[in-house]
Amino acid sequence: MDIEVPICPNCESSVHVVLSNTGKKVGTAVGGTVGAAAGYAGASSGAAAGAAIGSVIPIVGTAVGAIGGGVLGAITGFFTGAAVGNQVGEHVDRHIICEYRCNRCGYVFEA
């Protein structure tokens, strides 16, 4: 499905018109933050498993396994949340905000 690009009302070019990315940027940041928090909170079982596996090497292995499980859960949650937030933000930009910018003349307009 091709996406229609509007024509700039100022210079009448459609080649240089791009969608404003405000919602996409905000969605990525918020999604990543929420995803990291949820991933870290949900990684308690991963941290417990990491600690159990790491307990083969007494003190150090348990700590490294627990920290590793929590960090891995946070990183996985961050990337998952950021990807979802990016898609939601792009949808908001394209269908709700509808703000475009012409890179040729710098004009910002709504389509």
Automatic annotation (TrEMBL):
Q: What is this protein called?
A: Glycine zipper domain-containing protein
Q: Which domain of life is it from?
A: Bacteria
Name its species: Pseudodesulfovibrio profundus
